[in-house]
Amino acid sequence: MLLKFGEKFTDLFKRVMPDSFVFALILTIITAFSSLIFVDSSFTEILESWYKGFWGLLEFGMQITLIVVTGYSIALASSTEKLLSRVSKIITSPLQVYITVIVLGVLLSMISWGMVVIVAVLARELALRVKGINYPFLIACTYLSFTSWVTGLSSSIPLLMNTSNNFLIKEGILEDVIPISLTLGSEINFMMIFVYTIIVPIIIYFLIPKKSDGKELKDLIVENESKNEISIIKEVEFFRSKKNNLSDKLNNSKVLQFIIFAMGISFLFYYFNINGFDLNLNIMIFIFIVFGLALHQTPKRYAISMKRASSNVHGIIFQFPFYAGIMGIMLHTGLGEAFSNWIAANATISNFPYFSYLIGGIVNFAIPSGGGEFAVIGPSIIEAAKELTFGLPSDQVTAYIARTALSMAYGESLTNLLQPFFLLIVLPVMGSGTRIEARDVMGYLAIPFLILFIIQSILILYMPI
Question: What residue spans define the domains of the chain?
Answer without folding.
Answer: 2-225+312-462
